[in-house]
Each structure stands twice: as C-alpha cells, then as structure tokens.
C-alpha cells in the first residue's frame, strides 16, 4: 500500500507573504481548485492500486483540513479522515502573520540570532526548528504504525514545513537539506 503526502492548497496567508504557521487561514478559491486537482491526481495514482479505502491524516488547521475534505469529496474510494494535532506547522509565535521586513524592523536582534542558528533559535513565544522537527518525527513514527496496520492507501495532508521534515526522515537526509526540498501548494508526493 502507498502513502501520499499532500500540501494544502493556497490559503489567504500564502497570498499575504507572511509567516503563517499556527495562524489559521482559509483556503482561497485557487486553493480549493488546487485541492481538487490533487484529488484528481490521487485518483489516477490510486487506480494502479487495489485500495478499497483511503485513510487521510490531516493537520487541524483549516487550510489543511479543508484540503483533506475536498480530497475526500473527490476521490472515488471510501475515505476516513483523522485529525492529527501534531501535524500543524511550526509555531512562529509573535512573528505569526508578519513578513520578513517587518520582523527585521521590530525584532532586529532576534532576527540576527535566527540567521546565525536557525535550528536552535526559538521564535518569540513560539517553538524552535529543533523542537518542531522532534514533534514531527514523534508524530510521524506514530502515524507510520497506523499506516502499516491499515489495509489501504494513506494520505497525509499538512503544511510545507511538516512535509519536508517527513521527507528528511523518510530519506534519511541531514537537517540542512530542509532548504533543498520543495513542496508546492496543492502538490502530491509519494
């Protein structure tokens, strides 16, 4: 059985070019269309498998959850959606919703600290990349057990950062490769 990773469709936050981790933003019309396109792509991929049911694991944030619902509505096989709180994006704390220029202006010292040690730097009232990675790794190990026990294909719907960490883990790559990985809005990867 196969596991597919899907990044949520475009959200209002993506249109504003700021840092949106835990800040809950809705899908745009374009984002809903990207989710329908992802469903079509998944339908084609699932035709090659004999899956009788699909498990969809999703972040609770609306941009991911709504993407998961659109997938469920448009796939030709029965689906079950499970909300997984630990699949949320990194918590940018007080920086949520700000763009880089605004952060540099309001938090110049913290911004320099972030540039010097992006792995260990903790976003003000948020989390560090290191803690984020550990959270996603712990979550992914638990999901892998569920996926292995499930008798169908699985889909994980989440955020760019989360999915890139899962790829790092699955491919046994170093943390610095995080910046080399790409996950476009609405993209499906295996």
Automatic annotation (TrEMBL):
Gene3D superfamilies assigned to the protein according to its UniProt record, in alphabetical order: Phosphoglycerate mutase-like
Residues annotated as binding substrate: 7-14, 63
Active-site residues annotated for this sequence: 8 (tele-phosphohistidine intermediate), 89 (proton donor/acceptor)
GO MF term set: phosphatase activity
UniProt protein name: Alpha-ribazole phosphatase
Organism: Anaerovibrio lipolyticus DSM 3074
């Amino acid at each position: 059985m196969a596991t597919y990773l899907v990044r949520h469709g475009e959200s209002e936050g993506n249109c504003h070019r700021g840092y949106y981790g835990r800040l809950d933003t809705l899908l745009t019309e374009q984002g809903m269309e990207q989710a329908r396109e992802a469903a079509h792509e998944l339908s084609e991929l699932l035709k090659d498998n004999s899956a009788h049911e699909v498990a969809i694991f999703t972040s609770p944030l609306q941009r991911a959850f709504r993407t998961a619902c659109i997938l469920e509505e448009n796939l030709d096989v029965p689906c079950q959606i499970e909300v997984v709180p630990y699949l949320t994006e990194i918590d940018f704390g007080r920086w949520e919703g700000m763009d880089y220029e605004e952060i540099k202006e309001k938090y110049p010292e913290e911004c320099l600290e972030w540039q010097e040690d992006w792995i260990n730097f903790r976003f003000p009232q948020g989390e560090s990349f290191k803690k984020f990675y550990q959270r996603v790794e712990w979550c992914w190990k638990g999901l892998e057990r569920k996926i292995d026990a499930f008798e169908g294909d699985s889909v994980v719907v989440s955020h760019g950062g989360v999915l890139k960490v899962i790829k790092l883990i699955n491919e046994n790559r170093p943390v610095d490769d995080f910046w080399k990985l790409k996950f476009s809005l609405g993209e499906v990867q295996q």
